[in-house]
């Protein structure tokens, strides 16, 4: 199950275990850590639908029951390109991706092309057939958790009954950080049996933007990050890239186990209408690059000015003088207010 890609010209190799999800990027002796992968992204974030029936206020894509699905043939063309570019995994999102009418075929085809599919769900529409396909083809499923947690609890138990590796995605903001600390100290019963609790920094984007909710407004950031990275934490913890400025600046966590944002460097986003961005959160703020026969996914990855702008940001001296600049790479290129290091 271990897959290795050797990139002699770039001076490094990648290792991925499709069964466990283990991934490592290993430099050749004497070579620097690679800044980006010219051959292609290691991970693709793909929105296969903008359909959702929940209408959450914080949904950055403002998904509704009027949202449309990515065409199956379009999806297959993206996966074919991903396979040629050496992509290991795709993260399927939406909307609620498992309610795409061709979802089972999407999972099957992805795995058939040698790529591991994962997806995030709100728990609705998980039929037995979809759960069986998930167990057969997917690496893991993430469940979006929000109060009152009844639907979250039901979904966790449903996935556990099928033996599916399950993570919880929890949006971290100035008020929800209190619940996060409580969960890490004394986990509630419904979190028993999950693989990991993954914290997502609240983004000022969506149907409604609540500036007061920004994580940086909390007075408990040092307490939170120190607990989340300590042995006292009673859950396995993960972070999205938008939290890493806090991890680097507020803890002693080694940069060898936490990466800066890899948007445009080792990952990209494809929307349901075949628009490509370095990051999904840029999709509602700036024009993307449309995939066409003349403008392929590989062309976009290598040559798009949009991709280059992200790489330029991460390699700039914007945070020169900060001791964490080389690890954090200046934080988020989209939302200044997501940076929670306390240094700016």
TrEMBL record:
Superkingdom, natural source: Bacteria
Residue stretches making up the Radical SAM core domain: 38-240
Protein name (database record): Radical SAM protein
Organism: Agrobacterium cavarae
CDD domains: Radical_SAM
Record's keyword terms, sorted: Iron, Iron-sulfur, Metal-binding, S-adenosyl-L-methionine
A Pfam cross-reference name: SPASM
Cofactor: [4Fe-4S] cluster
């Amino acid at each position: 199950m271990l897959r290795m890609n050797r990139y002699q010209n770039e001076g490094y190799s990648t290792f991925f275990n499709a069964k466990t999800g283990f991934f490592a990027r290993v430099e050749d002796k004497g070579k620097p850590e690679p800044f980006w992968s010219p051959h292609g992204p290691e991970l693709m974030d793909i929105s296969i639908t903008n359909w959702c029936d929940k209408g959450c206020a914080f949904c950055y894509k403002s998904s509704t029951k009027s949202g449309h699905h990515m065409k199956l043939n379009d999806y297959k063309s993206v996966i074919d390109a991903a396979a040629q570019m050496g992509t290991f995994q795709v993260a399927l999102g939406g909307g609620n991706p498992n309610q795409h009418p061709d979802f089972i075929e999407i999972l099957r085809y992805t795995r058939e092309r040698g790529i591991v599919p994962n997806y995030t769900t709100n728990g609705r529409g998980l039929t037995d057939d979809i759960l069986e396909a998930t167990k057969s083809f997917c690496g893991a499923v993430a469940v979006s958790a929000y109060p009152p947690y009844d639907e979250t609890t039901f979904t966790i138990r449903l996935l556990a009954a099928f033996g599916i590796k399950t993570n919880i995605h929890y949006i971290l903001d100035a008020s929800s950080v209190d619940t996060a600390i409580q969960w890490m100290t004394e986990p509630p019963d419904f979190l028993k049996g999950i693989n990991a609790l993954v914290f997502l920094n609240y983004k000022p984007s969506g149907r409604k933007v609540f500036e007061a909710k920004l994580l940086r407004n909390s007075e408990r950031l040092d307490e939170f990050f120190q607990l989340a990275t300590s042995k006292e934490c009673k859950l396995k913890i993960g972070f999205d890239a938008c939290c890493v400025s806090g991890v680097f600046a507020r803890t002693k966590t080694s940069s060898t186990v936490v990466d800066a944002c890899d948007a445009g460097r080792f990952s990209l986003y494809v929307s349901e209408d075949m628009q490509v961005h370095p990051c999904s959160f840029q999709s509602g703020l700036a024009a993307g690059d449309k995939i066409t026969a003349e403008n392929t996914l590989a062309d976009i990855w290598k040559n798009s000015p949009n991709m280059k702008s992200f790489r330029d940001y991460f390699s700039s001296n914007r945070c020169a003088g900060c001791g964490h600049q080389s690890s954090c790479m200046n934080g988020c290129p989209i939302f200044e207010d997501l940076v929670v290091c306390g240094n700016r």
